[in-house]
Amino acid sequence: MNYNQIFNEEVFPLRDKLYRFSQSIVRKNDIAEDVVQEVLIKVWDKREDWKDWNNMNAMIFTITKNLSLDKLKSKNNQLRPIPEGYDTPSETRGPAQKAIAGDIHQIIKQSIEKLNDIQRMVIQLRDMEGYTYKEISKMTDLTMAQVKVNLHRGRLELRELLQKQL
Amino acid sequence: MSRTDLITLIDKYLNAETSLEEEYTLKREMMRSDVPEEYHYLKEVFSYFDAEKQHTEIPDFDNPANSASGQARVISFSWIYAAASVVILIGLFVFINKNTNTFDEDTFQSPDIAAENAAQALEYFSYQMKKGTDPTLKNVKELDNLNKYIAIFNQ
Question: What's CA A161's distance to the chain center, in Å?
């Protein structure tokens, strides 16, 4: 088994997806960067075990998810929730406020950040990365039903948040 | 796609019952201009996902398979900050110590030369100060003459 070749062809090219995935959980670029670098090293160090992994892709995402959640739980990396009405565009905006707060991209980003960790994770994997429900289920250790329920609730909550603002 | 079909597909999407193909179709339909007002937000959400996927700046990750030892280790940002602080502290300590030593060495190593230099400097200072003595005496003489004339007038 040529470990180098497998790693370079199947694992290392995943770094973009892993970074975006970790970012969706930890919501901080530098922590996501640390997580992905650590995942790449961990996967490489476990190369002797690759033969026992049924689905390498899913396994790598699972490691990334677990490490990201660990980082998120660590005291230093916890994000403080944004207080209601603070730094978010009001529902009735004048032209000047629209110019300042009308950055649609920012509004959507902030709304996604308000979803819970699981909802953010499944939306990221489905709507951005385009994985099937089955693949997401394996990557996240959730059942197919749980994946769909979280996706459904997350999308509804996003609609609730965005229909008011956009 | 008719408006009714679009709304049905959106409902299916919200219920997480769509296949990847159906979601692709939905995204394509949403990019058209005649999207019902209440679903404009979804059009923006799809654009956001596309933009994020294409424009997220990905850091340069080290490939452990290509590293010499194959056993690369992660150095987290917090450790880098800590290491940088230690280097700055050591640098400051060395710099301050070096400055103090330089000050001591001037006189400590050769006190005789230092004393000689100091004497020369004082002598030069004294010479420069003396320069003012002669003109002052001359002016005082002139004042004496003036006093004599004043005394004559007073008599």
Answer: 19
| Closest residue of chain A to B27, computed from CA coordinates | A127
From the list A155, A122, A24, A52, the residue with the least C-alpha distance to B26 is A155
Q: Where are the alpha helices (DSSP H) in A2-83?
A: 3-6, 15-26, 29-45, 56-73
Structure tokens at B69: 């030892």
What span, in angstroms and rounded, lies between the C-alpha atoms of A56 and B1? 39
Query: For residue A139, what are the contacts with CB-CB under 8 A and spacing of at least 6?
Result: A57, A58, A61, A62, A65, A125, A131
Domains for chain A: give ranges and CATH numbers: 1-77 (1.10.1740), 94-166 (1.10.10.10)
pLDDT band at residue B78 using 50, 70 and 90 as cut-offs? low
Determine the average pLDDT of the residues in B42-51: 91
| Contact list, A163 vs chain B (CB under 8 Å) | 38, 41
CB A22 within 8 A of CB A68: yes
Measure the CA dihedral A143/A145/A147/A149, to 10°.
Answer: -150
Return the structure tokens found at A126: 């489905």
Residue A53 CB neighbours (<10 A): 14
A75-109 pLDDT, tens digit each = 566 655 555 555 555 545 555 555 544 588 889 98
Q: Taking CB atoms and an 8 Å cutoff, what residues of chain B touch A41?
A: 64, 72-74
What's at A57, amino acid-wise?
A: N
Using a CB–CB cutoff of 8 Å, tell me whether A149 touches chain B.
yes
Q: Which helix (H) or strand (E) holds A135?
A: helix A133-140
Those residues whose C-beta lies under 8 Å from the C-beta of residue A91, and which sit 6 or more positions away, are A164, A165
Q: Which ipTM was obtained for this model?
A: 0.75
DSSP helix/strand/coil, A13: helix
- For residue range B109-125, list pLDDT tens digits in order: 777 888 888 899 998 88
Residues A33 and A41: their CA atoms lie apart, in Å, by: 13
